[in-house]
Amino acid sequence: MKPAYYVTTPIYYVNDVPHIGHAYTTLAADVLARYKRLKGFEVFFLTGTDEHGQKVEKAANTAGETPLELADRVMKRFQALWEKLEISYTDFIRTTQERHKKGVSDFFAKVMEKGDIYLGEYEDWYCTPCETFWTETQLIDFKCPDCNRPTEKLKEESYFFRMSKYQDQLLAHIEANPDFIQPKSRRNEIISFVKEGLRDLSVSRTTFKWGIPVPGNENHVIYVWFDALTNYITALGYPDEGGNFEKFWPVDVHLIGKDILRFHTVYWPTFLMAAGLPVPKKVFAHGWWTVEGQKMSKSLQNVVEPNMLIDKYGVDAVRYFLLREVPFGLDGDFSHAALVNRINSDLANDLGNLLNRSTAMLNKYFGGELQTPGAETPIDRAYREKTEAMIQQVDQHLDDLSFSKALQSIWEVISAGNKYIDETAPWALAKDPAQKERLATVMYHLLESQRIVYFLLSAFMPKTSQKGLCYLGVTEEASAEGLKWGLLKPGTKIAKAEALFPRIEAEG
Ligand code: MSP
Hints:
Elements: E1 4-13, H1 20-38, E2 42-50, H2 54-63, H3 67-84, E3 91-94, H4 98-113, E4 117-127, E5 132-134, E6 152-161, H5 167-176, E7 181-182, H6 184-195, E8 201-202, E9 204-205, E10 213-214, E11 217-222, H7 224-229, H8 231-234, H9 243-248, E12 253-257, H10 261-275, E13 283-286, E14 289-291, E15 294-295, H11 306-313, H12 315-325, E16 332-334, H13 336-366, H14 378-399, H15 403-424, H16 426-429, H17 436-457, H18 462-471
Parallel strand pairs: 1-2, 1-12, 2-3, 7-13, 12-13, 14-16
Antiparallel strand pairs: 4-5, 4-6, 6-8, 9-11, 10-11, 14-15
Helix pairs in contact: 2-3, 5-6, 11-12, 12-13, 12-15, 13-15, 13-17, 14-15, 14-17, 15-17, 17-18
The structure holds 5'-O-[(L-methionyl)-sulphamoyl]adenosine.
């Protein structure tokens, strides 16, 4: 039986259209999903949309639609973008689906039966855009400490979750499991937060209707974060604890942005503890993208639309850039100049050129037919060993979610390939009939190293990987078994490659 691997993205609010921030998390999850599939895992990759709550209700009112009409319209935009970005998700959950509503209702009832949800009264400051209550001392000039927008004072009857009860258990869990919250800086942040003391959490609302009713009390709808977080198990069929739930829970990694860390590492695990279910193995919070040095916002009209980027630069250039440019976990800045620079230097010059040069030479010197290699010299051995080491490095970096380091390891081998050509000077070997076997060895090393490079790239740039392998005459799909040296067969016909990534001239 294949080992199981479960990876999730946040579910996206439908009051906003997709931008590079959303594309970023989803893309990272896709690379992990593709890589784990390649390594022989049975992967469940979940994404979806968060469709309840006051924020969505308000946006629908403004647009003159019902919340469900708004959700239907916007969720299609997410799905269309994921298709265009070649996202290989297993399931797309919408919180308005029956399977989800039923699961949330059961989950809530279960925690209530355990005595960890009780009815009380709430009076505090509410930030609608963040769907978060704040105490007066947390406010900054009566504004939300997260988004700096005005808050309003709300008093309502509310159900509360006894989060305070789980403070010690949560802290002990975080401390015993250094991998649970990553990166480390985020882990420290949460440890301090929990140590300051957890308050009970309001988990229902009476001031609007757009949500899942509290079981047994229709005046209340379940708090949107309680509803949303539960998607990670309702998609697995919860409350049925067999089937996919048994196979995939607890999740291997929840990928999220740093702004929603507390919900995923304090609220969610304590809900699960109360329900007697295992907590996630890992939550990884990535950083935020700014655009040309500024915060991305509708009012600044600088929101970067992935659709537009893909149309302009191609899907794989965008996939490469987003994961290569900024170490996962840190904040980064998006600029067209940086993207064009990466395309020209890494993709056109390094990757594309290597394939181009080596396939052209094989065609010129051996009519495009791969020859049996002869004995290795130290320079060939060093190049082969570097290629073999890359396989381990990529594996390790992806385990650590260091996407940019994984790509860096691959690019070191690509650069080594270009250097290997310069040092072995095949054009000189071709002039001397006595060097024919030497030339065959050099060509074999160049093309075999690239076969492995394109196998690994299948997780990052699926189309480019396919194209590259096609030029190399490889018909089988990238697989873990193929990640070893020496599988490219002498006799293989190899076509002369076109430019994989044409250079882009800077816009004047
Ligand atoms: N609906 C909640 C998540 C519920 S998960 C149970 C939500 N949705 S969101 O649409 O507002 O944001 C989704 C993700 O997009 C978050 O992980 C957030 O960090 C990410 N990003 C939003 N803007 C971003 C950037 N500018 N840069 C990087 N990621 C950003 O929160």
